[in-house]
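In full, the data:

***
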Amino acid sequence: MTTYQEALLPGTRRALLHRIALAQAEGRAPSLVAAVVRDGQVVWHGARASVDGDAPGETVQYRIGSITKTFTAVLVMRLRDEGLLDLSDALEKHVPGTGAGEATIADLLAHTAGLAAESPAPWWERTPGSLRPELSDVLGEQPLLHPVGRRHHYSNPGYTLLGALVEELRGAPWEEVLRGEILEPLGLRRTSADPEPPHAGGWAVHPWADALLPEPLEDLGRMAPAGQLWSTTADLARFAAFLTRGDHQVLSAESVREMRTPAAPTEAADVAGGIAYGLGMQIQHRDGRLLVGHSGSLPGFLANLTISVEDDVAAVVLANCTSGPLPGVVAADLVRIVAEAEPLFPKPWRPLYDVDPAVLELAGQWYWGPHAFGLRASADGLLALGPLTGSGRRSRFRPNGDGTWTGLEGYYAGELLQPVRRADGTLSHLDLGSFVFTRQPYDTDAPVPGGVDPKGWRGMR
């Protein structure tokens, strides 16, 4: 069995430990723990603490705050996949009378419902959830601050509504549904709504003195689906592997991929910063990598889970302080260190299992007007279209079984690629969403829209 010591090179392990040591020291965190996942397995765990020789292990619980939202989003996606709701459904259809019912389920998942970021005073993270026993107490008198669906505005009350939706359609408390549908199937035995020993205590660190203040520990009540959970680096490592690959017991790889896809309009600053939001997952472009996951914080705790799907590397960082270290930056750095020091080996090239002459006929060079493109048939049964030089529209296409193909991404996502044949059966051109691709630039033998000048190509004096 691979151990942590064998999984990574010594230089990589030292770089990872140095990074969290720097974060704990500069961030003045009482303790900071981290784990790295590669190929679905934990390959490194590290910890630093203010008490020498007493660093917490991978089974010590920390509060994970808003990473809870990703768990709640998975529960909602399960309801969708079972046909109990559609993401385009208005909340009112399933949970009537909230005052925010015009928002759709997708709006709530992507924080585009127009709801306030927080519940009405007093500060919900530092007061008992019993002060807000009803949804109306969480939402306040005017739940909507922005037009529904128009902008991304992070909302904790929005995930309270999603928790209520889960309870309504399952007929059971959110925590009970969570345990039965996610925690137990994935083996997350140290993830819970309430702290279970051993767990870290939450602290505030004085900004101008090396002094500590214990933070209150509150049950969030109705707002639990937005931030209640406690977990460990070991459990969150398993959860990261699930968010990368899916699991047939919980949620398919396709639905998990949908969660990782941007679903909310971004503001100009977010575009510049490479930040977006999917369905219960944060998305960012950092150091040339696309990273997905979620951050979390509650008084006394900071948390982050970051995944690079392309590198198949994920990192978890947990700390027990209200402010100080930046776990999102640290987690991204841990991913980068492993991905750059020990890059993922590409899968071996394999030839097509069976060559279809009709598909092989499509492969090769095509022109959209004067723009040269290549169309390649790959062993996974897809066609890949891309420009031969420079930048341009790219997409893979899946077969529909009738000779046509459907685009999977980018500009051509959902668009139909149709080979068009002449009366004698020979291939004339490709029709891609009405665009005509020909074997020669503006081929006179193909029905190019607008026609081709009969004098053909010429020079200029």
Notes: The mean pLDDT is 95. The first helix runs from residue 4 to 7.
